[in-house]
Design brief:
- About 5% of the residues have low confidence.
- The strands form 3 sheets. This protein has a 5-stranded parallel β-sheet with strand order 2-1-3-4-5, sandwiched between helices. Strands 6-7-8-9 form a 4-stranded antiparallel β-sheet, with no helix packed on it. A 3-stranded antiparallel β-sheet has the order 10-12-11.
- It has 2 domains: about 120 residues, Rossmann fold (3-Layer(aba) Sandwich); about 120 residues, Arc Repressor Mutant, subunit A, CATH 1.10.10.
- The longest helix is centred in the middle third of the chain and has 20 residues.
- By secondary structure, it is α/β, with parallel strands linked by helices.
């Protein structure tokens, strides 16, 4: 039975979510603010399989909660609830380390589907045992490659890790998905519109500066010299281009 922590200060919504999650077979518990959430997850180190986290909370907001979790290397899957699905909230949530988002008001069946998706991914990751020095491209249960190697680095999309020698960088789900999209289009120009719609499910009119910030962060992971990128390039006025082998481009 999967254990889910609901972090929501609206009592009627929190209790409704808890009731419906329990009816679906989850072990669900509720806290009403960010401090209580970090206390349960970090101080008491309770094990939950997923967290449903509202952004607008009294005191410590949802962004702060997920940032603290990731800073403490707690990678419990987080489904963030956003007010009216505001793009700026969604992008800020992804930058903080959230795994998925759902705008309010939402349909219960959609929330359950999103939650089940996060739990399936988490179970898949825990079940993997990548071999040391693995460099081949592997297929994932989703029909896409699970690992990709280039220039002495390996991106493990399943484990949400980028390995370079003895150094391992943990990726957020959205960092991993953006990298996957760019790698899948190796050598091709990927527009900002594609990233917004195909990776993050947002509308084209969203402020694209947030994407640039993600790319800057990804360059720190994939480039030997982030100030002079060779693999993750910006195509001025259009978008981005990933090159696994710049010499052959």
């Amino acid at each position: 039975m999967s254990r889910v922590l609901v972090v929501e200060d609206e009592a009627h919504l929190a209790q409704g979510l808890c009731f419906n999650l329990q009816a679906e077979g989850y072990e669900a518990e509720v806290v009403g603010d960010g401090e209580a959430a970090t206390d349960r997850l970090l101080k008491q180190k309770e094990n939950f399989d997923a967290v449903v986290l509202d952004i607008m909370l009294p005191g410590k907001d949802g962004f702060s909660v997920v940032s603290e979790l990731r800073a403490a290397r707690n990678y419990v899957p987080v489904l963030m609830l956003t007010a009216r699905g505001r793009p700026e909230d969604v992008l800020k949530g992804f930058a903080s380390g959230a795994d998925d988002y759902l705008p309010k008001p939402f349909d219960l069946s959609i929330l359950l589907a999103r939650l089940q998706g996060l739990l399936r991914r988490s179970q898949w990751i825990r079940g993997e045992t990548p071999a040391p020095g693995e460099t081949r491209v592997d297929a994932s249960p989703e029909g896409d490659f699970g690992k990709f190697s280039f220039a002495g680095k390996t991106i493990d999309f399943g484990a949400l890790e980028l390995r370079s020698g003895e150094t391992t960088v943990h990726l957020t789900l959205m960092e991993s998905e953006l990298l996957r999209h760019l790698v899948r289009n190796d050598g091709k120009i990927v527009s900002r519109k594609q990233v917004l719609e195909e990776v993050w499910g947002l509308h084209e009119d969203t402020d694209t500066r947030a994407i640039d910030n993600f790319v800057v962060r990804l360059r720190r992971y994939v480039e030997d010299d982030p100030a002079h990128p060779r693999h993750l390039l910006t195509v001025r006025g259009v978008g981005y281009r990933f090159l696994a082998n710049p010499e052959k481009a």
